[in-house]
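BUG: 3D viewer hangs when loading the predicted structure for this chain

Environment: internal workstation, default settings.
Expected: structure renders.
Actual: progress bar stalls at 90%.

Input used:
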Amino acid sequence: MKLFRGRRETIAVRAAQARPDDGPVIVLVGGADRDALDWAAAEAAARGSELQLVYAFRWPPQLLDPLANSAVDLRARDDVDAVLMNAIHRARRIAPSLRISTTAFPGRQLQALISMARESQRALVVLGHGRGRLERALARRLSRRTTASLAVIGLSAEGSIGTSAGRVVVGDGSPDAVGFAFRAARRRGTGLTVVQPTAEVEDAVIIWRMAYPDVDVRWEFAPGPTDGLVLSESAGAALTVLGPGQSSTYDVLRLARGPVVLVGSTAP
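Structure tokens produced before the viewer hung:
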């Protein structure tokens, strides 16, 4: 029995080490918030992934030329090109050798992101950290209508430092979330804090620790709701990682004081 278990764990470790981590990083451009673009460019570079810049817009009312034929508004097209070129230049400042593709989507932001996310496996969609209804609606609908992982990027307030500052935090987790968190911690050369782990999460951590023994793991337990402890640990954290399907997920996405990733059903 012990031999069988050891062989099973070895297979699990090899599978963890072989998991692909190269899905595209997708980000909306054209808004005033540049944090999401900067974070997406840095993440894509670290993962060796393609950065996909998406600009969702609406064409102006159709124009007619003197012969009553439809005509393209060249100024509107130039405006779209300018937005995408500015985003490319900004991303190149983060990572000059980054692979970048652009998409101009004539429609709503939600439809644009869903369309892009469904075209690629292991996609990571990046949103700015907004507290308005639009951002919350995008986060909810994307997580329900795609299998992509979702990153909501916010910066911690100056001087706001928790006990997991600089580390990756995983809370309300799943095995996929644990895997995502380990790979993120390893890329960043930092440790991992596991909040209120379930038995399933503990088993996943054991496997990933064997796969990546250089990642320092710390456990955090506290009475009361998990989301409060996750929010406390998120202050100054390099990244907070959540699993899908938790009741407190969107509260953490809205209130966390740093970048948060909600891992999809097929994690990158």
